[in-house]
């Protein structure tokens, strides 16, 4: 054996000793390595979500009209399909549905504005008077809340309302009005194209999805549209029932400002769980000032009764399981949406969360092999 051959054998033996065997875990294949890999993936995902939310917040004037148009299109798209099935041309069916929806929304918004604006000052005075009476009652009630603490909280609210920040917000009303008009026009244009070419737009987007996932993405899109449509139609019906029942009770009790209060209850119905309840509390405060504590207690009882009727009958019958989210998830979505986008964010948070959950269910295959006897998620939207 030559010296060269001997050196080659020694080198191969040394390299074989250094090469890890399949049973030896590498740097990233042991428990710590897998944990580190997952942690890095989670951090990258959170960073991507943070950047996406930041970009959407900077583009609110585009994102919010786009989302509203998408939700409205999902709500009325069955009507467009029905008109096409009846033999209507596509453009005519789209135009009829589009202008009909604009007329309905315009009439509702106009009625709301005039109903609230004509008596807004008196509504504020009545609510303020009710709050003061409630404050006096709380001061006399045996609770660990002193009058000084109540006065301090009220003073803090008043200080904010008279601060320079509040004045700057009031002075920015013209800019806000311009943004609202611009957003409304953009929403109308996007809504028309969603109704007219929604299927083609979705087909174009699906081209960028890998073929192995295209079927699930198509199913997820169809289910998302169903969820949005059912949510909007069901919420509108439930909010209308709440407003009619509570408004009728206010009218029977001869509580002033019954119509503006009913309008506020209808608007609050689009904010699940808390919206209609807060509006009902406002109605109780007005009844406390105008008609006394007995009328206020009756209004509170009607609000509680309507909430129970809504949760146990209206929601399951009208909306079914279109929004299969737990109440805690809804509250967290409302909080996050309100912080990020104000009232509009709070209104849009729940349908966005419901769509996200539907997409996750479809893409992950969750529930496909669920036994028929196993209960589904709890539906809680109000």
Q: Based on DSSP secondary structure assignment, what is the total number of beta strands?
A: 0
How widely separated are the two ends? 88 Å
Task: Report mean pLDDT, rounded to a whole number.
Answer: 75
Rg estimate, integer Å: 29 Å
- Residue windows where pLDDT falls under 50 for at least 5 positions: 20-24, 160-174, 369-382
How many DSSP helices?
A: 13
What is the N-to-C succession of helices and strands?
A: HHHHHHHHHHHHH
> Beta-sheet strand percentage?
under 5%
Biggest sheet descriptor: none
What structural class do the secondary elements suggest? Answer: mainly alpha
Tell me the overall shape: globular
Helical residues, percent = over 70%
Describe the structure.
This protein has helices spanning 3-18, 31-58, 60-85, 90-117, 120-140, 147-161, 164-171, 173-206, 211-252, 258-268, 275-291, 293-319, 327-364. Mean pLDDT is 75; it is low at 20-24, 160-174 and 369-382. With 382 residues, it is mostly helical. The chain contains 13 helices and no strands. The chain is globular, with a radius of gyration of 29 Å. Helices cover 81% and strands 0% of the residues.
